[in-house]
Amino acid sequence: MHQERTRRVASGWTMLPFNLAISLTGVGLFISGIALAQGRAAEGLGVFLILAGMFVFAFSALMLRGHFTLQPNQARVLMLFGEYTGTAREAGFWWANPFYLRRLISLRLTTLEGAHLKVNDKGGNPIEIAVVIVWKVRDTAQACFDVDNYQDYVKVQSETSVRHLASSYAYDHGEEHEITLRSGVDEVSHALRDELQARLATAGVEIVEARLTHLAYAPEIAQAMLRRQQAEAIIAARKMIVHGAVSMVQLALQELADKRIVDLDEERKAAMVSNLLVVLCGEAEVQPVVNTGTLYS
Questions:
Q1: Residues spanned by the domain of 28
Q2: CA gap 41, 22 in Å, rounded
Q3: What is the rounded distance in angstroms from the CA atom of residue 175 to the CA atom of residue 177?
Q4: C-alpha span between 117 and 213 (Å, rounded)
Q5: N or C: lower Cβ tally within 10 Å for the chain?
Q6: pLDDT at 54
Q7: Beta strand spans in the chain (E)
């Protein structure tokens, strides 16, 4: 694996006057050579000056090619005849060896919005999942030389990580105290970020953030799962209603006994409990029946 090395380069503003002076020298020699070549006495010297001027001008053009600029959060990987020589990271106007092959690398944050993937969760249920990943290049040498195309590498490894993550967690119904995709969004996002960082470390990429953006059952089981969730919600609501009704009945019997309003035998207590539970737990409004006789008639 390669490791980034910082390469110091010359200031472009310092080298620019020198390179322009070489260019003007080449132009001057060329013009002087043409003037001398017109006279027969110095024809040979004129030809020489013309050739020298052309050579100097070509050399100045080569030197001017060494100038380059860097914006903030940009870097240029410098290679000389296939060998990595270093990376220039500082923003500004610079000059380097004109024979350097310079590859521009962006160090800015990049957002990758993944497509909606259809995968199976831990329980084998087909689900749809999508993520958004924020990443940046940390090591330019690894990004350039250790993988073929680091941007494509990030996309492929991201999809692989999402599929592996989805198969490691249940969508919504796991075991007791088990993290699920739906209830443990923060934990799942941290796990996704850690796995992506481990996979992309060889490409010199740093994962800044990874979050789930879409999570749903696949269309073929969505209706069945919706009915299941509705049934679970109804059962939970019924449990709460029954618990509250029993507490109210217990309180009513306790108040009647403590204040000695009426003494009820076990049969009448059972009838009272039954009536109160029907009133409190029933969905429809109960019509009261007034007893105009005695308690036992």
A1: 10-105
A2: 28
A3: 6
A4: 12
A5: C
A6: 92
A7: 10-11, 67-70, 74-80, 83-88, 92-95, 101-106, 110-113, 117-120, 126-137, 205-217
